[in-house]
TrEMBL record:
One of its GO terms (cellular component) is plasma membrane. The lineage of its organism: Bacteria, Bacillati, Actinomycetota, Actinomycetes, Mycobacteriales. GO terms for biological process: siderophore-iron import into cell. It is a multi-pass membrane protein. Belongs to the binding-protein-dependent transport system permease family. FecCD subfamily. This is Iron-enterobactin transporter permease. The keyword Repeat does not apply. Its main location: membrane. InterPro entries: ABC_BtuC-like, ABC_transptr_permease_BtuC.
Length: 358
């Protein structure tokens, strides 16, 4: 009996006007559609999650007009900006994680583990607690903190090249040192600033930047520009996924592309950190889940961003609704992502151990 012929992954061909055409991977498109549906359900859940008395039946009126003014204010002014911030920043964190896992060629190469997120947090703390700057200053210092941390980690890990495992270990060490600096900065500040910094440092969406369009508008615009730049570089990322040696052999401009991706990845995590504080494990787990669902050898960027948005939104709904029902108080969303991410990290380490032993 002859073996079945492998025709490769099924693809759909799209044509528009007879001049433009493109191919879409069928499995990735299906997974993306399912995640979009789940994201829509979580979006509705996020709008009614707060304890403001707006039920599911009153949601259309509160969202589009015709409902009680209090309900309209609760949904339009409080919950809608928060939910949109969660979706956009979750996608930003997921793509940042995918970039660093690709550059380091290590499944643990996430910006929140190798110190880039902590570096952004340090920069924002210096701007707010030491220099007394506002949100714009915090954003700039968060970006500078992330880039400086990335430069230090790459410099210390460079030994005729940057090995993924060496870079991760160096990043973990730098992350621990920066965490100590962050604690010192908080302890030396006055009580009110220390409490605000500690709440923000836990990863929360209860602060003003996560609910105010004056802060969210520029953040959304910057994330949009960065994701567009990532989309332009996505054909080269497929070559980088093959490894630096093969990428150079195929003529890809690996150093320039890697530097551009590094800047995009740090900027994405810096924007998210400025709005929510450091949030762990979304950047780590979203690219893994997207690759497993799509059964893809490279990072599917659109599905990765959708999975990151879904993970962050579900975590926020749990932080608002489920934790309030169990403990009587809402939790910072960063606490929920740490709990869920810790479970996923244990699963990831267990499967890697089985793979190595097998």
């Amino acid at each position: 009996m002859s073996a079945p012929i492998d025709f490769g992954r099924r693809q759909w061909v799209l044509r528009a006007g007879g001049r433009f055409s493109g191919r879409i991977d069928a499995r990735s498109a299906t997974v993306g559609a399912v995640v979009v549906v789940a994201l829509a359900v979580a979006f509705v859940g996020g709008l009614v999650a707060a304890d403001d008395g707006v039920g599911l039946s009153a949601l259309p009126g509160a969202l589009f007009g015709g409902a009680d003014p209090v309900a309209e204010y609760a949904v339009r002014e409080l919950q809608l900006p928060r939910v949109l911030a969660v979706i956009v920043l979750g996608a930003a964190m997921a793509c940042s994680g995918g970039i660093f896992q690709m550059l380091t060629r290590n499944p643990l190469g996430s910006p929140d583990l190798i110190g880039f997120g902590v570096g952004s947090y340090t920069g924002a703390l210096v701007a707010s607690l030491v220099l007394g700057l506002g949100f714009a200053g915090m954003s700039g210092f968060a970006l500078v903190g992330g880039l400086v941390t990335a430069g230090i980690v790459y410099l210390l890990a460079f030994r005729g090249g940057v090995g993924g495992f060496r870079l991760v270990i160096t990043g973990v060490a730098i992350s621990a040192m920066l965490a100590a600096v962050n604690y010192w900065l908080i302890l030396r500040s006055d009580l009110d600033d220390a409490m605000a910094a500690a709440q923000w440092g836990a990863g929360t969406l209860d602060t003003a930047p996560a609910r105010n369009w004056a802060y969210l508008g520029p953040a959304f615009a910057l994330v949009g520009v960065l994701l567009f730049a990532l989309a332009l570089l996505s054909p080269r990322t497929r070559i980088l996924d093959l490894g630096p040696d093969l990428a150079r052999a195929l003529g890809a401009q690996t150093p320039l592309t890697a530097v551009a991706l590094l800047v995009i990845g740090v900027a994405l995590i810096a924007v998210a950190t400025t709005i929510t504080g450091p949030v762990a494990f979304v950047a780590l787990s979203a690219p893994h889940i997207a690759r497993r669902l799509c059964r893809s050898g490279h990072t599917p960027w659109i599905v990765t961003s959708l999975v990151g948005a879904l993970l962050f939104l579900v975590s926020d709904v749990i932080a608002q609704r489920v934790s309030a029902a169990v403990t009587g108080a809402t939790l910072p969303v960063g606490v929920v992502t740490v709990c869920l991410g810790g479970i996923y990290l244990c699963y990831l380490l267990f499967t890697e151990m089985r793979r190595v032993r097998g």
